[in-house]
Amino acid sequence: MNAVDVREAITRAHHEEWGRVVAALTRRFGDLDIAEEAAAEAFATAVERWPADGVPPNPGAWLTTTANRKAIDRIRRENKREDKHREAQMVYDDDPPEPPGAIDDERLRLIFTCCHPALAVESRVALTLRMLGGLTVPEIARAFLVQETAMGQRITRAKAKIKVARIPYRVPSTEDLPGRVTGVLAVLFLIFNEGYLATGPDTDPVRHDLTAEAIRLTRLIRALLPQDGEVAGLLALMLLTEARRTARVSASGELVPLNEQDRGAWDAALIAEGHRLVRERLATGMAPGRYQILAAINAVHTSARDVRDTDWSQIVALYDQLVRLDGSPIIVLNRAVAVAEMDGPDVALAAVDRLADTLAGYHAYHVARADLLRRLGRGAESRAAYDKAIELAGNTAETAYLTRRRDQLG
Question: Which structural domain range is residue 31 located in?
Answer without folding.
Answer: 3-90
